Amino acid sequence: MSQEKQKVAVIGLGYVGFPLAVLAATKDYEVFGYDKxxxxxxxxxxxxxxxxxxxxxxxxxxVKINVARDETNLKQCKIFIIAVPTPVDEKYYPDLSFVRxxxxxxxxxxxxxALVVVESTINPGVCEEIVKPVFEKKGWEVGxxxxxxxxxxxxxxxxxxxxxxxxPRVAGSFDEIGLKKTVDFYESILDATVMPMKTIREAEAAKxxxxxxxxxxxxxxxxxxxxxDLMGIDIVNxxxxxxxxxxxxxxxxxxxGVGGHCIPVDPYYLIEKAKENDFDHRFxxxxxxxxxxxxxxxxxxxxxxxxxxxKSVKGTSIGILGVSYKANVGDLxxxxxxxxxxELEKLGGRLNIFDPYLPKYSNVKNLDEVLEKSEVVVLLxxxxxFLNLPLENFRDxxxxxxxxxxxxxxxxKIESLGIIYKGIGR
Length: 426
Ligand SMILES: NC(=O)c1ccc[n+]([C@@H]2O[C@H](COP(=O)([O-])OP(=O)(O)OC[C@H]3O[C@@H](n4cnc5c(N)ncnc54)[C@H](O)[C@@H]3O)[C@@H](O)[C@H]2O)c1
Fold this sequence. Notes:
By secondary structure, the protein is of the alpha/beta class. The protein has 3 domains: about 5-200, NAD(P)-binding Rossmann-like Domain (Rossmann fold, 3-Layer(aba) Sandwich); about 210-215 and about 235-285, no CATH class; about 295-425, Rossmann fold (3-Layer(aba) Sandwich). It has helices at about 15-25, 40-45, 55-60, 95-110, 125-135, 175-190, 200-230, 235-240, 265-275, 280-310, 335-345, 365-375, 385, 390-395, 410-415; strands at about 5-10, 30-35, 65, 80, 115-120, 145-150, 170-175, 195, 315-320, 350-355, 375-380, 400-405, 420-425. It has an 8-stranded mixed β-sheet with strand order 3-2-1-4-5-6-7-8, sandwiched between helices. Strand 4, helix 4 and strand 5 form a beta-alpha-beta unit. The longest helix has about 30 residues, at about 200-230. It is elongated. The chain starts with 5 loop residues before the first strand and ends with a strand. Bound molecules: nicotinamide-adenine-dinucleotide.
């Protein structure tokens, strides 16, 4: 007699929820996907890989994701995964409205005994202070009729080695049963370990410090880049040197700023939460301020180099290579390139913008057109297509200045071609 598959609902089918839904569907689960974005649901119904990752291409033909447009279709599910956005507003204040509303959807439609796992990145206390009360208001009793856990996702879009399947997890819950159910579920779908945490707050805190660690370390090298530049020291060579130490040093690299939905956002969740205890996370605030200053710093570098050739941003034809926040993906969220573009436009620059992954944001067709139309180039994303371009093409198109916002081009070679090169701290 064939056993009925356990039903899992994934609430929020983005960079985090969609890969998880696909992975669970490859295992012994019947998966229901629920999202507010109708266009996304239609694409999923057509079998599209909406996150564009290669390993998903391999899995998709083997699985079925049931699209649940009507939230009452979620009733049959025993496990609910919440993977909705946790952004900040224009004042960098955490916006937990998506987590609250997704929790309400689940609380309204679940049946007794369900496991609810929040995967969204949240500060310590959110499960207790925001998620739990939503369920209690609907009459559910945590640890008796509903089990609530946090198992933060650590996915790194565009990473060819680490993905939803093989990245280890931590999990925390309000009670032993909830923790066991959570660890059992993730162990049944992952090829990686799941570390049970003592409390749900510890699990929430673990994720927040991972991304704050990145932000602080990147801010440190961005600050060094500015300082070493004044001393005439190449920061990239310095970091390469320091990284030969086989312990207690981990290289981070300076750039035109950090982007994406996580690193420039998550530290604010901790900063704001700590304020409730009158604690000021000065270190994190400083890191945020330094990293937020980098797009403007990149423009200053361009202005300095334009001065050398007796030009200004105003009226100069500037090629912009890349808009997305990271290499080889079309993700615009919190991209520092957007700030650079906005400021250059305000200064009167004539921009030729090209990103192969974001045709909608490009105002030229291809790389050739950028080079033909521009006098100077600012590289803002290290897409492979840009790295593979023969550097002679810049010279042959009369490019006079290159600002390398990712320190990813060959400085010596560019200078040997008679082009002015400036990187971030080199
Ligand atoms: N993107 C990453 O690399 C990454 C990595 C680790 C963790 N995270 C965290 O995971 C969470 C989700 O991030 P993401 O990148 O997948 O976001 P995303 O924007 O790609 O996807 C979120 C989805 O949730 C949907 N949604 C919003 N409110 C909803 C609701 N009430 N009900 C149903 N669907 C709803 C949106 O329409 C969207 O499709 C965030 O907390 C983020 O910080 C993201």
